[in-house]
Amino acid sequence: MFKFIHAADIHLDSPLHGLERYEGAPVAEIRGATRRAFDNLIDLAVDEEVAFVLLAGDLYDGDWKDYNTGLYFVERMGRLREAGIPVFVIAGNHDAASQITKHLRLPDNVKMFATRRPERVVLDDLDVVIHGQGFASRAVTEDLSEAYPQGDPRFFNIGLLHTCLDGKPGHELYAPCSVDGLRSKGYQYWALGHVHKREVVSRDPWIVFPGNSQGRHIREAGAKGCTLISVDHGEICEVVHHDLDVLRWTLCEVAANDSETVDDLYEQVRDALLQALDAAGGRPVAVRMVLRGACSFHSKIQAEREQWTQEYRALANGLGGAGIWLEKVSHETQPAIAFDSVLGRDDALGGLLCAIQNMELDRTALQSLADELSALRQKLPAEILGGEDSYDPTDAETVKDALEAVKELLVERLLSTTYGS
What we know:
alpha/beta, Purple Acid Phosphatase, chain A, domain 2, 14 helices, six-stranded mixed sheet
């Protein structure tokens, strides 16, 4: 019996987006998160006494500014070498962008697979053969798996491949292939990389995306880690996910329609934050809070968004534990008043509401208004203009979205004034 680890998309020294601009965020801890997650991977390999480790691409995060990232990786590989653990690596699209990577000498326990054609490595003591091919360039659009050889029936066959498979939302269409195509090779395990969300694609044979080892922004929420596989007499007997992440990203959605007052909503937010902190298992948590639903206090929280955002941030800072930070608060509530019937009224109020609801700007008008806001753009802070949730008032679509928000606010205010809500 032997065990091995399958990990992918480490993205060493990749920055974590969306936290550093907030007061009180642990900047040093955030910047070192991908390394500490990789340290957890090394610890797991040693503790479990695995026979080998597979890294299915995107070990790095593009070209390095200096050798520090590579030196860190070499040092960690040295620790595995001391433990007698070999490591098998393929280059992914981000690795292919690095020039320094191509000239870095790795310890002799690390095997980097070829990029021109599939290569195989036989581990005679385990009756295992590993097949793999890395990316020669950043954008590989052909099906690399087609050239992989048929599995050798004398061995336990593993395919190491960086691929989007048949296409995944949010990921480039790199090295596409099909599940049927992978099955036809006769391998017992396909160790895939590139998709950052863990997924067991198939169990016969096992085709697995382990996900990335550390979430880097809110689109990579939830537990992140690697997969530990146990093999006995040539058969896989256990496939287990192990968390490696040191900071957890969480999306919390709060139903504002369950609250009668802003104080009730505050308590709901508090409960959601506590649940996120508890679910993180002792890790710091970065939360995006989304408030949704129709409520009677819609106009109040919309008019005082910044105040309530700071109230919730202060609440998060005071909860203690491993630490919790609000990456963003999205106020997506609606007025509690049903105004469909009012729109059909044959009077001044009905006519005004209809006019507001039907107000539109054509493309030319939108662009003209956006151009007028160019001076505003120059005054905005850099952190608003960049990052995951950048804001550009000179973009026509941004102006259109703002118009919709203004229309909603006007309608809600008119109805609130008329009906006393």
